[in-house]
Amino acid sequence: MIINMSVKYRSVFTFSAESEELAFNELCGLSVQFIMRLDKGVVLFGHDQSFFLLSEEVKKLIFIRHIFPVDGEFDLDGDVFERLGTHLSGYLESLDIALPVSVQVRSAGGDSRGFKAKIINFFTDRGYDYSQSQPVNIISVFLTEKKLYIGASNAAENLSGWAGGARHYAYRGDTFSRAEFKLLEAIELSGLELKSGQRALDLGAAPGGWTKVLSERGLCVTAVDPAEIEYTGEGVVHFKGLADEFFRQSNNVFDIIVNDMRMDVLMSASAMLKAADILFSGGFAVMTFKLPQKKPMGLIKKGFSILKERYDIVFARQLFHNRSEITLVLRKN
Asked: For the chain, what is the largest distance between any 2 Cα atoms, rounded to a whole number of angstroms?
């Protein structure tokens, strides 16, 4: 991270407030300049490269959840809506009217709904389709007590199509735990394709949240855990034992293996090396690294080194639904 340089562009970065030091350490490898902190886990940075190129670099990082470019900044005074309307008019030439627009407004304090409604109405009045759930073009806004920061970008460049990377899922009556949301978010962000009829192995499955997610998508799931599995959907088989016991006894080969075991990073990575023996070549795995409070990056690097003996790491990020952990998507090499 470069300090005291002149910059052409500015962008807002979002990460878990508890992982700020880790996020800043990762950003040391990029040519970005800290400008100011807008809120907990929300920082304004400057940079010389275009937002598209910056996005390609940031996608390789683990602890950044969301970014958006800042091309406008306004004081929150009496005529802010008039000035905002003039600024929005400048987007009309660059935003294809055939593609849906989404508006994402976040605030460090105060009511932001008036701004969101104003921006939505601006575009729908001019014939644009509005889509909250499947955005292509996104108008992003962040409000502090005195300032409004705004920018337009493509959803794919923002790392997440959800404001600040905060992907919310609705709790249903049959939701076992929030752990389900980790797997759903990992599937969505990584683009992992699951097909009905595939064979899945869930290591450390109890109480069954990840098993449930896979089963509901039509996969045949073997759930491995010495504890009871609460989910008993169609096609689910419970092996009541430890992962090592299953590896010794199994003659099956799986299309995908998932692992959310509460285990040290190095032990969990080593378990995945054994699991690779019963995963099809080119098959995928999803796992979490449970991070210690002290020196987590050193352990992450060692864990990556172990995994790379058998896998390519295709995705690694601290998701919105992660806490003191990160989620990885692997492909057997």
From this structure: 72
